[in-house]
Amino acid sequence: MVMIRAERHLNMPPPAYHPESQSITVAVHFGGEHRNLPVANCIGGKVMKFDYMNALHMNKNNLDLFAEKCGISGEGLRYYIIKNGGFKLLLNDEDILEQVLEQLEKREFTVYIEFDPPKPQEVAVESDRVGKNATEKKKNKVKKKEGNGKDKWDDELYENFVDDVSAEMDSADETNSESSGDVVVSDNDMDEHRLSEDDDNEPNFPVFNPVEMYNPSLELGMIFCSKKEFKKAVQSYAIKQKRSVKFTKNDSFRVYAVCSGDGCKWKIHANKLKNEETFQINLYQDEHTCPQVFNVKCENKLAK
């Protein structure tokens, strides 16, 4: 027997389960914004509680059913718990069962649901050009919802938790020369992904969708409508991945960033397309070899 807690009783403690029973209450948080800084927490959203769950039978199917009861369905569902001050992704049935049993004594297990937003309806625009026509395709592809807070990027996330993310990034490096801290790239580094000159003729490069700014997916060849949008996506990526990054080049034509972790090879380069305002990722080493950090910083290396 599973009971859905009435909304008026959400703040009440779990039922008085028999000491020898395996029953537990599952509290499901959904629809809020998950933040990792300064400590993991969920801002806004809703909560539903399910009483009299058998802890020994908890698995992903149960969590999927809870998500459906919360009005969430489809692909891309991810379940997290807060552990040791950060969000921990529940990987599989064994992991779920282990984490539930750890909370059995407390008789309440709290889980957070994260899910991908519905994809916007695409309007195909035929184009043989990469620059301006790719930007026009993007404008037709993404329809921004005015007045909807969920579709707007929360700038407070940067102001409160990210160091050195300010207007100085747009101007401080304008005078940087090639010797002022550029990333030196070896032609023998086979781990890097770089656009070849032949790739410049490809008309089907991916275009960044600003709706995904909260959890961006970066890839080689991706096009951004401006330098500001590219930098913001990198900063968002850093926060989501809990890795500090440093902008080593930041002028009117190039934006380079590297991971601040000791010995980490992660790096990304974007260049301005000719005669356009758009920027394109032309080099991307996407694998981190450093641990995650809680004090995320996005630094701009100033010219000496």
TrEMBL record:
Residues in Transposase MuDR plant domain copies: 218-281
Residue numbers spanned by region Disordered: 122-149
Biased composition (Basic and acidic residues): 126-137
Pfam families, sorted: DBD_Tnp_Mut (PF03108)
InterPro entries (UniProt xref): Transposase_MuDR (IPR004332)
Coiled-coil region: none
Organism annotation: Sesamum angolense
Protein name: Transposase MuDR plant domain-containing protein
